[in-house]
Amino acid sequence: MRWNRLIGLMLMLCMMCGVAQAEQVNKKQIKGLDEQVQAIKRDVLSISTQLNLLEEKLLYPSNTYMAFFVSMDKGAKLSPDSIHLTLDNKNVANYIYSYKEVQALREGGVQRVFTSNVTTGEHNLKISVIGKDDGNKVTNSGTHELKKGIGPQFVEIHLSATGVSFRDW
Amino acid sequence: MSTLLRTLILAIGMFYAAFACAAAEQDSNGLKDLYYGEALYYANQHDYFSAISRLDTELAEYYGLDQPEKNSFHFYQDHAEFDVGDFELYYRMYNRASRAVKLVIHGNVPERVRNGAIYRLAKIYYESQQPRDALATIKTLKGKVPDKIRYKEPFLRAQIDIETGRFKEAIALLKKIENAPGMVGFAGYNLGVALLKSGKQQAGIAELDKVGQLVSDDRAVQAIRDKANLVLGFRLLEDKQPAMAKKYLDRVRVTGPFSNKALLGAGWAAAATGKYERALVPWTILSKRNVTNKAVQEVMLGLPYAYSKLGVYGKAAVLYGQSLQDFSNEIARLDASIKSIREGRFLAALIREEIKKDPYWVVHLRKLPKTPETYYLLDMLASDDFQSSLKNYFDLAELRRKLKHWETYIGAYQEMIKIRAAYYEPLLPQVQAKFRILDSKMKLRLEQRAHLERRLKKMLVAPRPDFLETVNERRTLSQLDQMEKSLPPGADPKIQARIARLRGVIIWHVDTEYQDRFSKATKHLHELDVDVKRLRRIYHSFVRTRQAATQSYQGYDKELTQLSIKMQQADDTIKQLMARQGHMIEVMAINELERRRTRLEKYQVKARFAMAESYDRATKAQQAKVIEQSKKKDAAQEEEKVKKAKKAEKPQQTQTPSQAKESKKADK
Fold first, then answer.
1. What is the 3-state secondary structure of B138-203?
2. Which DSSP category does B94 fall into?
3. Which residues, 6+ apart, have CB-to-CB distance to B262 below 8 Å?
4. Which among A12, B307, B327, B376 has the fewest CB atoms less than 10 Å away?
5. Residues 39..58 of A with a Cβ closer than 8 Å to B: which?
6. What is the pLDDT of residue B650?
């Protein structure tokens, strides 16, 4: 009986200690955990980089690699709502823009809208963009003949209120 | 890319000329590398993980190139190193960002670059609440700074000075940049705070007053203006200058982030001067706001207090009653919240993907059913520790989501490799065998062509017409030689002369047509070049295709297995960290909610007493009123009687006997 009471008391004390520990969060604990979070971020970033490199090597060999990028002038007024891409008369990409994405383009960012493998030779790229310019609805389209060589092929699709322009990289 | 490699690259790569050149090119000629632009695209959306990952990938590819200077990324190489540090800072990877910046500082770099890096490092320390380290770092900054941080650098220096109690230095710095572009309001506010903290009361008030009157459409400036007025108002309230305080508190916008405190302060300022009826206006507005706010809870006691001071005890008692009810409801909600947090619903609600797509997710989180604790999130976020812990938790959840997603990639890649191997492995040996035959033929032809070219070159110096004989000519000459040899000794000289003449004709033609033939031969060789070029192109294309086919399935197994193991390990670590971070958040949230509960319980006690007192006073006032009214009534009746008595006395003097009889009857 005495033992039972003692064990009960000890258990209670242990629980109290546990509760006391759980209820306190100090700066040192926060900092320690934060450093561990930073370390795991570093590890996952390294995995991501390795995966990116692997993906480019495995999925997009340089001789067939083709990518289309969308850009806009810094501070442009055009606000694209959606973009539609066809390559050799086949639908290859449709994209609807969020406000954040439009802002990111306006601030000088470039969006990789489509990545694929294509054969060397000539290809036809068609773009149509629906958006707003100063509140007015704008529909622009453009066609680009591109010649895929033996190396990777990049095309920049530049959107502006006046139309769509292309640049081969 | 390994950290060591990164480190080396950073140390070697920071050349100012290239940096300045890249910066200039970026500004004047637009974008020079699409992938750098892609990293910016992510960074502009605050997706710093993707931005860092993109730049890391590009840098790793760039440094793996044989001729990196031919790659368009070389325009941004130095920029990218800096940007990675910057993005890491935004992604709260302070340790890695500070290590990268330290390498720049200690590297052989020009002054502006070093100063830019010192600024970044000091900022890292300041933001991670290490003001002493920030001060020691910023003190090493000497000379010119990049234009981008021309005003930001003294501003940061002043902030660090304020934090470390060096007010005099802070004041001197802030005075210089008070009206600098981008600093309007912010420098002034900090200057005011520094002046107040250094004991220069009047100057501080004047400075904050100036900031408090700024006119701007910029929301940030409007917020700092409100903050200046609020700080000033409460400072004057503490100094027992309520009339002055009210002036500043009234300037704060009624809808801004500081409006609740301002309304509360404005009420107290009016109450302090005894003008309780004026306190009623801001307090009534505030009392209708969200009950979770501390200022609103305080005003729930303040408003009935003002009414009681105005002698409206009944209204005060009713309001105290309402407050008691609200406090009880709030305590019940707090209890439910604490229970819900302990059951783990809080963390589950926080990481719901669809919620964070909404920019006002913190506000809308309040509407989530079955998670009452989310109602208090906005207020909890006021604490830096809670905020950073929550951000870490979100980041961990996001990392876990990414890892889970990538795991499916690994499986798909492995399958893809298997399919490719099954397709190419039987084909490649046959292709390879045919290729070897073609390869040897091609080599032979190319050797022949090279031989011809060499010969033609030599013929430019030493003409050899015999090399340009046609097949027929060569055959005829050979026949003539044979005929000559077959002639018996003493043969007819006519025949010999004939053979010599025929040979002479051929040699004549060959010699006289030498230039023409040489030109034709050169032309034919050039024509052959076109075919050789085509052949070479096909050859290289074949080599590349064969290489691509082999590389499409060979050498990935080890890499994929390693990646898979790394992912698994990272996932395990994240799971543990999430559990610990989540527990920490829960404890912090529960502590905060319990603090609120304790405060509300105290408010409840106060409200109960005050309500009882108000009822008491209201009852007493009521009784006093009743007594007063009955006294007034008695007095009025008395007066009436007196009047009647007086009236009665007058006619007795003049009445007739008949009238006297009637009067007696009436009296009876």
1. HCCCCCCCCHHHCCHHHHHHHHHHHHCCCHHHHHHHHHHHCCCCCCCCHHHHHHHHHHHHCCCHHH
2. H
3. B226, B229, B230, B233, B249, B250, B252, B282
4. A12
5. 39-58
6. 64
Instruction: Answer whether B590 touches A (CB < 8 Å).
Output: yes
Longest dimension (CA), chain B: 217
If you measure CA to CA, which chain B residue comes closest to A154?
A: B34
Query: Angle B557-652/B313-342 helices, nearest 10 degrees?
Result: 160
Could you tell me which residues come within 8 angstroms of residue B77 by beta carbon, excluding any fewer than 6 positions away?
Answer: B13, B18, B22, B59, B62, B68
DSSP line for B506-519: HHHHHHHTHHHHHH
A24 at B interface, C-beta within 8 A: yes
HSE, side-chain direction, 13 A CA sphere, residue B546 = 16
Q: What pLDDT, in 10s, does the model give residues A130-169?
A: 999 888 898 999 999 999 888 889 999 999 888 899 998 8
For B383, phi then psi, to 5°, come to -85, 130
CB B299 within 8 A of CB B286: yes
With 0.80 as the threshold, say if the pTM is over it: no
Do residues B395 and B92 lie in contact, with contact meaning Cβ atoms separated by under 8 Å? yes
Instruction: Give the ranges where B462-556 is alpha helix by DSSP (H).
Output: 471-486, 493-512, 514-551
Closest CA to B196 of B461, B616, A113, B188: B188
Determine the distance in angstroms separating the CA of A25 from the nearest CA of chain B, rounded to an integer.
7
User: What pLDDT does residue A82 have?
Assistant: 95
**Site from B29, B33, B36, B45 to mutate, A interface, most A CB atoms within 10 angstroms:** B45
Asked if A105 and A74 count as a contact pair (C-beta separation under 8 A), the reply is no
The residue whose two tokens read 């390498």 is: B103
Residue B258 sits at φ, ψ, to 5 deg, of -105, 10
Do residues B474 and B506 make contact, with C-beta atoms less than 8 angstroms apart? no
Reduce the secondary structure of A17-37 to three states and give it as a string: HHHHHHCCCCHHHHHHHHHHH
B323 and B305 Cβ atoms separated by less than 8 Å: no
Q: What is the pLDDT of residue B365?
A: 59
Give the residues across from A145 on adjacent strands. A124
Task: Give me B530's structure tokens.
Answer: 């076109």
First to last CA, chain B: 123
pLDDT score for B582: 92
Chain-chain contact of A52 with B54 (C-beta, under 8 angstroms): yes
Q: What percent of chain A is modeled with pLDDT above 70?
A: 86
pLDDT band at residue B659, thresholds of 50, 70 and 90? Answer: low
What's chain B's length in residues?
Answer: 668
- CA–CA separation, B61 vs B1, rounded Å? 9
Q: Check if the beta carbon of residue A128 is closer than 8 Å to that of residue A140.
A: yes
| C-alpha span between B137 and B105 (Å, rounded) | 10
When pLDDT is cut at 50, 70 and 90, the band that residue B354 belongs to is low
Which pLDDT belongs to residue B14?
36
- Higher-pLDDT residue of A4, B350: B350
Q: Which helix (H) or strand (E) holds A80?
A: strand A79-87
Please state, as a whole number, how many other Cβ atoms lie within 10 Å of the Cβ of residue B107. 16
SS3 B641: helix
Residue A10 touches partner B, C-beta closer than 8 Å = no
